[in-house]
Amino acid sequence: MSYQIKVAASDITFDCNDGESVLDAAERAGFALPYSCRKGVCSECQGGVVNAQGITEKALLCCVRPSANVTIAPRKIEKRERVVRKKLDASVFRIAQAAPDVTVLQLRLPTGVRAKFRAGQYLQIHLDDETVRNYSMANPPHQSDSVHLHVRHVAGGRFSDGVLKELAVGRKLRIELPYGEFFFRDESAKPVILVATGTGFAPVKSIVEDAIKRKLARPMKLYWGARREQDLYLADLARKWHDEGHVEFIPVLSDPDGDWAGRTGFVHRAVLADHPSLAAHQVYACGNPSMTSAARDAFTSAGLPEDEFFCDAFVQTGTLEPAA
């Protein structure tokens, strides 16, 4: 059995199978809706659903599974080529400790297989208990024979505090990619502001290195927020980009040690201090959900068009695992 989904104020309709989410049905029909976690936590997919009384109610479209024909009012919907995802058995190639609580995990794809993704997107790791964990690709798309993941350790995390500890070079992991609407839009000429907290640096790294490879001329600023300096686990790389003129790097610490001479406070407020008006910019924010939410509200209040704000909120699952 299937139901018809109508998009309000448009002529768009598509079918949704029984038990299928509106988000999945839209993708299957070749339409892109905003989303991030696909777990009903980040609220990036929030839109309207018209009830039987004709009243539009807010709902998370990754969780809405219709039992009748329904009309929806998403924040945005775009026609796009149908998403083609691959499930692969990738091999652990390298495990490196970037910081006491951040592991860089490099997975090598099967011989002859290339990963097709856009800079900023993420993959899913399928675990033996049939759950999944989301991690952003930190490498740029042209490095397509492997994927690099930045895994932040969380006590009790099913992957970061369990599976990861048992991994060794050569071990296979089942992955599926690509996922995510957080990817670089290169059709614009607007200056770019990148905002990251913690391992939100991973997809930002992919975006910057892709831009460098393709010699994109758009001005870029990277604001990376953390509690303390040691949490900026690849700051030397970001400073290298800065020194080479690829991106202006502004680290921001919320709880610095006494010898820190750089910017302090909340990272989104540092952006606003430098850019009281954001009307002419495009912003990519990735990391802690409280940051991405605060950034969206503050930046749109500062004139940023809502459709020029792209975010990926790294949410936690029920087992305290971050999507990072």
TrEMBL record:
FAD-binding FR-type domain mapped to chain residues: 85-185
Superkingdom of the organism of origin: Bacteria
Membrane-crossing residue ranges in chain numbering: none
Key words of the record: 2Fe-2S, Iron, Iron-sulfur, Metal-binding
SUPFAM superfamilies assigned to the protein according to its UniProt record, in alphabetical order: 2Fe-2S ferredoxin-like (SSF54292), Ferredoxin reductase-like, C-terminal NADP-linked domain (SSF52343), Riboflavin synthase domain-like (SSF63380)
2Fe-2S ferredoxin-type domain location: 3-83
Protein known as: CDP-6-deoxy-delta-3,4-glucoseen reductase
Molecular functions (GO terms): 2 iron, 2 sulfur cluster binding; oxidoreductase activity
PROSITE patterns (alphabetical): 2FE2S_FER_2, FAD_FR
Cofactor(s) required, per the database record: FAD; [2Fe-2S] cluster
